[in-house]
Design a protein that fits this description.
Elements lengths: L2 H7 L8 H4 L11 H30 L9 H32 L2 H5 L28 H11 L8 H5 L2 H16 L32 E9 L2 E8 L5 H14 L3 E12 L2 E3 L3 H12 L4 H9 L5 E11 L2 E10 L5 H18 L4 E4 L12 H6 L2 E10 L1 H6 L5 H18 L5 E2 L3 H11 L7 H4 L2 E8 L4 E11 L11 H10 L11 H27 L2 H8 L12
Parallel strand pairs: 9-10
Antiparallel strand pairs: 1-2, 3-6, 3-8, 4-6, 4-7, 5-6, 8-11, 10-11
Helix pairs in contact: 3-4, 6-8, 9-19, 11-12, 15-19, 16-19
This protein binds adenosine-5'-diphosphate (ADP).
Main location: endoplasmic reticulum
Pfam family, one: HMG-CoA_red
Family: Belongs to the HMG-CoA reductase family.
Amino acid sequence: MDARRKLGQQGAAAVPPAAARLPRVQAGDALPLPIRHTNLIFSALFAVSLAYLMRRWREKIRSSTPLHAVGLAEMLAIFGLIASLIYLLSFFGIAFVQSIVSSSDEDEDFLGVGAGAPAPPAPCALLGSPAAAPEKMPEEDEEIVAAVVAGKIPSYVLETRLGDCRRAAGIRREAVRRITGREIEGLPLDGFDYSSVLGQCIELPVGYVQLPVGVAGPLLLDGQRYYVPMATTEGCLVASTNRGCKAIAESGGATSVVLRDGMTRAPVARLPTARRAAEVRAFLEDPDNFETLSMVFNRSSRFARLQGVQCAMAGRNLYMRFTSSTGDAMGMNMISKGVQNVLDFLQDDFPDMDVISISGNFCSDKKPAAVNWIEGRGKSVVCEAVIKEEVVKKVLKTDVQSLVELNTIKNLAGSAIAGALGGFNAHASNIVTAIFIATGQDPAQNVESSHCITMLEPINDGKDLHISVTMPSIEVGTVGGGTQLASQSACLDLLGVKGANRESPGSNARLLATVVAGGVLAGELSLLSALASGQLVKSHMKYNRSSKDMSKIVP
Ligand code: ADP
């Protein structure tokens, strides 16, 4: 590891070497006034002393006087020369050395870790390499680490026992480091509020992963402008979505409609016989029983409101797919509580019902499933726009006919050939996942949330383009889960959908779903255009230089 990198990794607490503490001076840098004056004085002193000594030595040589016979004036001149030389060397010499060192920095500067770039985050002082002089761990913590390593204290009790989440994470991390022999240097520990995730978002924390967030926009959607936060490490993605937003905005904007809003949970129960299972099914699906079931279901939350139950059977196993509104929460916890209420209630009338699992996969959560594609889950949204002919040419650098043809052959026929399930699009999951991560959604739900069919049609005598994305299962919330964490909540705030909507519970989450669909519309438009005009590889080479294998980023 090179010395400067090590320096960066020692963190704020480490003392930099003396040279690094001196002001860095480079050609062209404007110096502060007092420094400039001092430089002038010493330069003048140097020049005058040198000139005087040269003149004196020339006279001595001419008059054959020994050179070492010096008078007071000469001694003063020699002293002035040495003093000014030391000053000038120490000032410009360091700048010169620094300029040589930094000239080999070009690659790092490009990557944002060289001069002028923000210093990398300080890794855990406990885990610094020996060269980085790690902070000594307190004796007491040393003992706990040793006990965790020896298996005498389970790592998962540290937070409760110590009552200090940061300390618990540091100790756990040190134990992991000793057990595995891996430094995990690049994974930061400090700079995160571990108490904010305790009991809600994660267990056994040892650090946090950093992801860059970009914004695409403005996305002109339903008359409002949104700057869409996207967390990704795929170069081109935000730039491409941004271009799509521009095309949409220059064409007058997109509009959206939320067709359905209901989270689902489907427990599975086994009955003694298929006939008996059918009886339970009939009870659940009987409209006369809906009110009773709703009362039972709704009692555990102010926001969960039962919308319906849809059943399916496999032999004597009964799958009951409950759908419920969940306010501004994505709703999995909320709906699970309601479902449990109903299962308990059913047990009275059907004591022979054996509940196998609160989730029987007919829900269907985090797995590709036709039920979500057909019936919907979460928010079902359609978003559309008419892109003007001149915008297709000017912004998207292609033409309507090529785009429509490409969409038919790739997104519709191609996906059919592939046996796609909800994947009749170019890269909906790219945008969905980037927005999900930025706004604290459950990223695993990108599976069904990315279900999307993209439709393109020529309109106005083939001049303009009608584009739509239909997304039946966008699962988002603005309360609960990761949405309350500082960074994620800031991204929700950027969109104006942070937290619960008090006047109209559920409105924030629905609005977020429409923004996701709008972002996907922009992303589809831009990628299809890049493909149609053959720009894709070129732009990836520009924005994603380090990706050698382009096939990985062409969805
Ligand atoms: P999820 O079901 O998405 O995991 P949770 O049920 O854990 O979310 O979190 C939602 C919490 O937020 C519940 O306790 C609920 O009472 C509360 N809450 C407050 N305001 C709202 C709102 N407008 N919509 C939904 N939940 C809300």
